[in-house]
Design goal:
This protein is mainly beta. It has no helices and eight strands. The radius of gyration is 12 Å and the shape is globular.
């Protein structure tokens, strides 16, 4: 599970049952989803073949369109 607080105070996150790696490949997880704690919402994965990307230069990327991504040094890139 990945959880973040945005600069606007929203708490959001993504869940996957897969362990995190840095092998630069897309992983399939039919149980993956995004969520908003702030708005009490859950968003199921629509394309499970591209539910999670394991990037070597970033944190987890949820969704093929990079719907939720934690960048390297994200707290410094404002």
């Amino acid at each position: 599970m990945t959880v973040a607080k945005t600069e606007y105070g929203n708490v959001i996150g993504g869940f996957t049952k897969l362990p995190w790696t840095k092998n630069n490949v897309w992983q399939r997880d039919t149980d993956a989803f995004l969520f908003s704690v702030t708005n009490s919402e859950k968003f199921n994965c629509l394309k499970p073949n591209h539910s999670l990307y394991h990037g070597g230069n970033s944190g987890p990327i949820f969704g093929q369109g990079h719907d939720f991504k934690i960048c390297d040094k994200a707290n410094e890139n404002r």
